[in-house]
Amino acid sequence: MLSGERTDLGDYLRRQRAAMCPPVAPGDPRVRRRRVPGLRRQELSEVAGISVEYYTRLEQGRAVRPSREVLQALARAFGLSGAERDHLFRLGGESPPQIESPDTVIRPGLLRVLHALDGTMPVTVHDGRLTLLAGNAAASELLAPLTGGTGRYARNIAYQAFTAPGLADLLGEEGAELFTRVAAAELRTALSRYPEDTHLRGLLAELGAVSGRFRDLWERCEVGAWRSAVKRIRHPRRGWLHFDIEMLHDAERDHWVMLYTPRDGA
C-alpha cells in the first residue's frame, strides 16, 4: 500500500460512503442541495448503529483498531460483498470472518465449465461439509459405485467411503484403505471449521455407529490436507486407469472442485 494503514481504512470508508445513495427519493430538493455524493457521516452512522463521533474518527484515521463488531456493522451498512467485507476487515487489522456454512448453490459459470469438460475429464464439486453437489457425466460414469446409497448422508463423500459396498472394486484394496483414511481426516477438518453444524455432527454419530474402520481411524485424530494425488480407479468400460487429482477451492462459497486428469491418454 502507498499510504499508512489508518489512512487506507479512512479512504476506503469515505469512498464506500460516497457511493451510497442518499435515503431520499430522486428529485427531492434535499438531494439537489447536497454538495458531495453519497451519505453524510451522520446518516451512515445511523445505518451502521455507531456514533457519528466514532465513525468520524475512523475516517480521519484517529481510531486505530475498530472492533470486529464495528467492522461487521459497517460491512452491513455499506452492503459489501464477501470480498469487500474481507478487505475492510484486513484494513481494520482483523482477520476476515469465517463463513457460517457452505453455500448450497454452485456458481452458474462453474457448472458450465463442469459440463464443457465432460469429454476431457471427470469433474466433481463438493462443499465444505463433504457433500457432493454436482458432477459431470464422465464423473458419474467413473464413480457410479459410490452413488448408489440412499438416505440423509448418501451424497456425503465421507459416508460413501465407509458404506459403499463396491469401494474395493473401484479403487483396489490399498486405494480403498487410503480413501477411508483421507475421508476420516477430511471430516475432522470439516468439523473443526463448522463445529456446531448439526448435519456434520449427525454424520459423525452415524459413522461411529455403523463402521468399526471409521472408529479406528477417528481415534488417530488425523486432519485432512490432501490437495493433489494420483489415483488408480477402475473404469466400468476401460478397466484400470490412473488419474492426477487436483482440488481447487472457491473460498467464498466453500466449494471444492475435483479435477480427474487421465494419465493413460483415455
From TrEMBL:
This is Helix-turn-helix transcriptional regulator. SMART domains: HTH_XRE. It holds the Pfam family MLTR_LBD. Residues 38-85 form the HTH cro/C1-type domain. It comes from Streptomyces lonarensis. InterPro entries: Cro/C1-type_HTH (IPR001387), Lambda_DNA-bd_dom_sf (IPR010982), MLTR_LBD (IPR041413). GO terms for molecular function: DNA binding. PANTHER family: BLL4672 PROTEIN (PTHR35010:SF2), BLL4672 PROTEIN-RELATED (PTHR35010).
